[in-house]
Design goal:
This protein is 58% helix and 0% strand. It has three helices and no strands.
Amino acid sequence: YARSRINKKVHATAIHFVIMSVALLQFFMIVFSFIRSLNSNLNNLDVRTKVALALFILTLNICSAQIWSNTCRRISPIKYEDVLLGEDPEDEHDQVYLPKVLMNA
């Protein structure tokens, strides 16, 4: 049994594809809803089209926020690191917590 040689960013890429596919489906739903409610007056849109348009704008905001957060993190001068506390023998985390009220009882 050998270790897999798959790139570590495959999972993140798959998540981005899912998010973009949702945005694309919403876009097509707006287009078809707009065509269906098309009248001589463009100011008169169905409620379905207005709700779909509002949800599409919300989806675009979420997608762009996720993309920009990753981009800004890469160009930031601050390097984020995972902080792991070292094993301290004097830490006393192995003791059971007992409140002072119960100790005096």
